[in-house]
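Please check this today:
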Amino acid sequence: MRVLSDIASLRRAVAAAGPLCLVPTMGNLHEGHLSLVRLARRHARAVAVSIFVNRLQFLPGEDFDRYPRTFEHDCRLLEAEGVELLFAPDESVLYPVPQTYFVKPPPLAEELEGRFRPGFFHGVATVVLKLLNCVQPAAAVFGKKDYQQLMIVRGMARQFDLPVEIVAGETVREADGLAMSSRNAYLSAAQRAEAPRLQRTLREVASGRLSSQAAAAALAGAGWQPDYVEVRRRDGLAPPQPHDRELVVLAAARLGATRLIDNLEF
């Protein structure tokens, strides 16, 4: 595996590797990320992974400085998966001057996650566009766990006519149903035991046994601080109409100091 930290070297390596599939990450890799790497292998002959903790998508007071960084461990995992290229730039490479040009995402970016993390998707869309321009992959894989992010990135690629296929990877879960996430490491033992309630609550909504409002109240009653529990259309995340059948329920809630997100298609 070649580890590259500058764009010029990256582009030479990409040209030599031929068509490839990119898996963008912020590092601290786990089985969920590795499942995306394996999916990428089915879409191109070579696989590239990026590791970059993107300051632009963290709000003041969020966990940018303490976000888990485990680069050597990540490299071992990626080498075991046969990844050809790892792009791991410093901030000075992707942002050599203060970033004054930003992608302005659609109104969807102000809903759901965007309502509670204003500006988040501006930072996400901007760094994803930069990474796609740097790597110029034939395809890129994004996990469904960040469902709204997937929809916004897919729409950006379509509207900017980017020559890249956006591939959706299924959410990987622990045995008790908790969606794998780097931030799960912040949970105490008691919180970790409680955390699967989020997925169970989404299943109650999907089955029709709980409304979104009742689900949020149930989480609050169990000691969570819910930001939202909402049912949307899968395609585009518009509010559902009575005849819609392809739906997704999305939720975000704090358990102690840790904010967890999850979703379930139904």
About this structure: Residues 54 and 91 are 8 Å apart (CA to CA). The chain has a mean pLDDT of 97.
